């Protein structure tokens, strides 16, 4: 497969003030392997996973407030619980005069995503400024010189792909190790290539997929990334592996059966079915045997609490609005 590389080269000047960040000084989510990971993910409702230190997010089902601060957005596929908040994300950044975001989508859906924006422009009469990039499996996008993202193959019912984030470092070649600094400087000035590039997989995100991605030989870096953020829609025997595959998803038992393939330091499970209670998910995760035991995490409790707080605030607003309208409180 021919490797294609993209990068973001916009030099436009925009406001540095970020009103969303100003409202969210307190960190949320979970800290894993040096990365703060935030967001929401409930199957069929919404998924948005955020890495604020990298200013990027994966998927945007309903555009949680925290996502608006992220400059880069990577979409795994076109189901509404993963892409439904896209117009609002772009519109809100425009409202606050923030820099137009860069949005990466599977190349197969790029044209339709642009049509989606055209419809909203016609309805809303707003600019909805953004940069939209279609990426094929195997292609790379440079977030910055020391950070790139590569699309990898996933297996869902519609066009889909996951993403691997790589850190990029330059290391001095062995033959120049130990030389005085001035000699190294002279070699570099004379055009000698004294370093080589190391790309290390840091974080991988699957989006929705069957377990087939695990045994795909082209996805070795996905299983080598420090952190693998992957779906586990079904977690117990109330649903079978066949049920999961029928809907293009993964069952926790499949993850356990492929345990020896995962070299990741941490596996963060997301996208649990809304049918499960918190206790059921916790019990299923705590029962995961070695060699995965201790490496599997979930932020479901935090995601759930964020949702509860959001619903509570909405409820209070509704009561206040009703009282004001009726003048009866």
From TrEMBL:
Metallo-beta-lactamase domain sequence ranges: 71-272
CDD domains, sorted: RNaseZ_MBL-fold
Residue ranges, annotated region (Disordered): 1-20
InterPro entries: Metallo-B-lactamas, RibonucZ/Hydroxyglut_hydro
Pfam families assigned: Lactamase_B_2
Alphabetized PANTHER family for the sequence: TRNASE Z TRZ1 (PTHR46504:SF2)
Protein name stated in the entry: Metallo-beta-lactamase domain-containing protein
Gene source species: Nyssa sinensis
């Amino acid at each position: 497969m021919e490797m294609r590389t993209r990068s973001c080269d916009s030099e436009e000047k925009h406001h540095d003030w970020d009103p969303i960040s100003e409202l969210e000084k307190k960190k949320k989510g979970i800290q894993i392997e040096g990365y703060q990971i935030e967001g929401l993910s409930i199957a069929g409702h919404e998924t948005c996973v955020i890495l604020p230190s990298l200013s990027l997010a994966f998927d945007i089902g309903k555009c949680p407030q925290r996502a608006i601060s992220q400059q880069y957005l990577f979409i795994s596929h076109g189901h509404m619980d993963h892409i439904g908040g896209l117009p609002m994300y772009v519109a809100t950044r425009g409202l606050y005069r923030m820099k137009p975001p860069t949005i990466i989508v599977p190349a197969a859906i790029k044209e339709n995503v642009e049509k989606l924006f055209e419809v909203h422009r016609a309805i809303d009469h707003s600019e909805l400024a953004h940069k939209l990039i279609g990426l094929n499996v195997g292609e790379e996008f440079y977030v910055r010189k020391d950070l790139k993202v590569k699309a990898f193959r996933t297996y869902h019912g519609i066009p889909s792909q996951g993403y691997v984030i790589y850190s990029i470092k330059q290391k001095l070649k062995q033959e120049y190790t130990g030389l005085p600094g001035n000699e190294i400087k002279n070699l570099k000035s004379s055009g000698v290539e004294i370093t080589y590039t190391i790309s290390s997989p840091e974080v991988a995100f699957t989006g929705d997929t069957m377990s087939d991605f695990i045994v795909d030989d082209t996805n070795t870096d996905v299983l080598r990334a420090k952190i693998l953020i992957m779906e586990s829609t079904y977690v117990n025997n109330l649903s079978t592996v066949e049920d999961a595959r029928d809907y293009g998803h993964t069952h926790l038992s499949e993850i356990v059966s492929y345990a020896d393939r995962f070299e990741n330091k941490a596996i963060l499970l997301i996208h649990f079915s809304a049918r499960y209670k918190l206790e059921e998910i916790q019990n299923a995760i705590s029962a995961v045997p070695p060699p995965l035991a201790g490496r599997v995490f979930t932020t479901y409790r935090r995601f759930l609490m964020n949702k509860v707080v959001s619903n509570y605030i909405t409820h209070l607003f509704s009561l206040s609005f009703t009282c004001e309208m009726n003048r009866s409180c």
